[in-house]
Specification:
With 403 residues, this protein is of the alpha+beta class. The chain has eleven helices and 17 strands. The relative contact order is 0.10.
């Protein structure tokens, strides 16, 4: 059966789309949709697979490609972000988000960062679901709203984007485009394969373990339940004595204990700990990472001293970093006094003004942050809908790690 888009689209000869089989009953059951997905979406997916429409909109169909895309993961992450974003709306204007009954269900994204959904509350018939677009970078006076609902199905919405004029008269309202009616295989999914809904997961922790991990446990005991350590921590091969000699100071025992248990790696896909014991001739050893961070801090401090108020190691009380975030925030100590055990932790945030030192030690700070009870600039908190046990984790690195 030809999709309803056939009369206003053409296939890109350089990157022709190709179908990726979908087990629609399994997909719809996993989504909890008794009435199923819109038939025009399924017809389009069966004919073309994941597709780049109009060189601007990616229509995500149930498929997967290792290391690049997983339909279920994309929906989970997109809907989580949407739940956070709709809280900026007045309460009476907030949308429910799938899997809430009648929630918005994502089907695509644009190159401009817009996300396209169906409003499943509109009708019990999925073929009558209208499109809602979460627009990024809305231009004042354009007529677009940040969350813009259209009285259009998926096919009708796509049809209206393929036009000659810049704007379209009411009732649809302003739309993306004008776009060409081109259909191309999504470039980052050249080898997409069918997606299978994941099997139900057995809870990683028992209720008793969850209580320890999230409420009653302390120190490494609770941290290891939230984020199991690797069997072989990556430290780098040299010795602590060699690091301390090269650095010019010993480091807090709590840091050494944590690193010997976990090694270098990334916490909760956000906070990255430098590899501490790389050999002296390694181009990315600990002291080089520290030097690079502090050289950047000094340069900023010279131009914006009010915004960079910290002293810099090895100055007395100077900032000594040992970890960074994927967004460029830095975590380190203020080296105040001769006793490293008393050094306070501090975050140098990339997108906020400098805050005060953190109140707890390193392990307590990691534990509180992963539990969702600590949030500060550079260490963002969990959303109210997040399960801390699912969000926590530690990905260990190996000798090839950059940091």
């Amino acid at each position: 059966m030809n999709p309803g888009t056939a009369d206003f689209t053409t296939v890109d000869p350089e990157r022709p789309p190709s179908p990726v089989a979908a087990d629609w009953p399994a997909v719809e059951a996993w989504l909890g949709l008794a009435a199923g997905l819109p038939s025009d979406f399924k017809q389009l997916a069966d004919a073309y697979g994941p597709v780049d429409f109009g060189a601007y909109i990616w229509i995500h169909t149930p498929c997967a490609e290792a290391g690049r895309f997983d339909y279920g993961t994309w929906l989970h992450e997109t809907h989580r972000a949407a739940r956070i974003q709709v809280r900026h709306l007045p309460e009476e204007e907030r949308y429910a988000i799938h899997p809430e009954p009648g929630g918005l269900l994502a089907w695509g994204v644009s190159r401009g960062g817009d996300t396209l959904f169906w409003d499943t509350s509109r009708s019990a018939d999925p073929d009558a679901w209208g499109v809602v677009v979460h627009h990024r970078g809305v231009i004042p006076g354009s007529g677009l709203r940040v969350w813009h609902a259209y009285d259009l199905t998926l096919t009708e919405y796509l049809r209206h984007t393929v036009r000659d004029g810049w704007e379209l008269p009411s009732p649809p309202g302003p739309l993306m485009g004008p776009l060409p009616g081109s259909l191309a295989r999504t470039a980052f999914l050249p080898d997409a394969r069918p997606w299978a809904p994941p099997a139900p997961e057995v809870p990683r922790l028992t209720e008793a373990q969850r209580l320890v991990a999230l409420r009653t446990g302390t120190g490494l005991e609770a941290l290891e339940l939230l984020s199991p350590p690797p069997a072989e921590p990556c430290l780098g091969g040299d010795s602590w004595e060699a690091l301390f000699a090269e650095l010019g100071t010993v480091l807090p025992r709590e840091y050494v204990t944590l690193m010997e248990r976990y090694g270098a790696g990334c916490w909760s896909r956000w906070l990255r700990f430098f590899t501490p014991l790389r050999t002296r001739d390694h181009e990315r050893r600990f002291v080089i990472n520290v030097k690079d961070v502090l050289d950047g801090y000094r340069e900023l401090k010279a131009s914006y001293p009010d915004e960079q108020p910290l002293a810099v190691w090895p100055e007395p009380g100077g900032f000594l970093p040992f970890a960074n975030s994927v967004d460029g925030d830095q975590l380190g100590w203020l080296t105040e006094g001769a006793d490293p055990e008393a050094w306070p932790l501090v975050v140098w945030p990339r997108h906020a003004r400098q805050g005060p030192p953190l109140e707890g030690g390193l392990i307590d700070t990691l534990l509180a942050w992963q539990r969702g009870t600590l949030a500060t600039a550079g260490l963002p908190g969990l959303d109210v809908s997040d399960d801390p046990v699912e969000c926590a984790g530690f990905a260990a690195w190996d000798a090839g790690a950059y940091w």
